[in-house]
Design goal:
By secondary structure, this protein is mostly beta strands. Helices cover about 10% and strands about 35% of the residues. The protein has one helix and seven strands. The strands form two sheets. Strands 1-2-7-6 form a four-stranded antiparallel sheet, with no helix packed on it. The relative contact order is 0.19.
């Protein structure tokens, strides 16, 4: 059986980058930690919310790398000077990635009550009609 790709469809021109993004997203290996929500806050804006209880602002890093929003968390382990009888809350690092479409920009990031909110906005697309003149050859 042949694998269908966007290049298989003759009317879909210039979508090779989209196909690479889909493959990269499938391979990114995002595990289930930390849990997150994605909500649409208007016709052209979104909010990603991650549950990051125990992380301070200095423990988190948010970057955009090649149209990919990457959120990393790394807690400092202060367990060296403590004696735990039970340790159910581990200092755990994570990385979450989200592929951004062209025109989606990352706005403000706010941490409150153990939740990290990241606002995204998509530029309103303009309708462009272009007439191509035909000349005799």
């Amino acid at each position: 059986m042949t694998k269908l790709t966007l290049g298989t469809y003759p009317h879909m021109l210039g979508f090779e980058q989209l196909e690479r993004l889909l493959e990269r997203t499938a391979k990114s290996g995002n595990e289930g930690y930390p849990p997150f929500n994605i909500e649409q806050t208007s016709d052209f804006s979104y909010r990603i919310t991650l549950a990051v209880a125990g992380f301070a602002e200095t423990d988190l890093a948010i970057t955009v790398e090649d149209r990919q929003l990457v959120i990393r968390g790394r807690q400092k382990d202060d367990g060296e000077d403590r004696i735990y009888l039970h340790r159910g809350i581990a200092a755990r690092q994570f990385q979450r990635s989200f592929v951004l479409a062209d025109g989606v920009e990352v706005g403000e990031a706010v941490i409150e009550n153990g939740l990290l909110h990241i606002d995204l906005a998509r530029a309103v697309p303009e309708t462009v009609v272009q007439t191509i003149r035909i000349r005799k050859g």
